[in-house]
Design a protein that fits this description.
The chain is α+β, with helices and mostly antiparallel strands. It contains 4 helices and 3 strands; from the N terminus they run αβααββα. The chain has helices at residues 2-14, 33-36, 39-59, 87-97; strands at residues 20-24, 63-69, 75-82. It has a 3-stranded antiparallel beta sheet.
Length: 101
């Protein structure tokens, strides 16, 4: 669609060959299992995750989610989004950042 082409073009301007875009995986602290038992809370959390994660999927860019500890030890995460076609480069970057070879 025209909208997808425009968003992809804009994303290509944002993220060049040697750049990455960092976005949070979630909106903040993850809800507890007890909180997720409430259908409204679970749906709100799901929609907030989708709002953050749909960007890379919409434009077809590679993305890696990296778990990171939050200030109180809770599990948070960062999305590392690369430009189109940078799948291997992005994986090498993440691997070297995490100490892998």
């Amino acid at each position: 669609t025209q909208y997808k082409r425009e968003v992809t073009e804009y994303a290509s301007e944002l993220i060049s060959d040697n750049d990455v875009l960092l976005l949070p995986v979630g909106p903040g602290d993850p809800p507890t299992p007890e909180q997720l038992a409430d259908p409204d809370t679970a749906m709100d959390f799901r929609l907030s995750i989708l709002n953050l994660s749909n960007f890379a999927s919409l434009v077809g860019f590679p993305v890696v989610s990296v778990p990171t500890p939050g200030p109180n030890g809770e599990g948070l995460g960062v999305q590392v989004i690369g430009c189109a076609g940078s799948d291997r480069q992005l994986l090498r970057l993440i691997g070297s950042s995490l100490g892998s070879k």
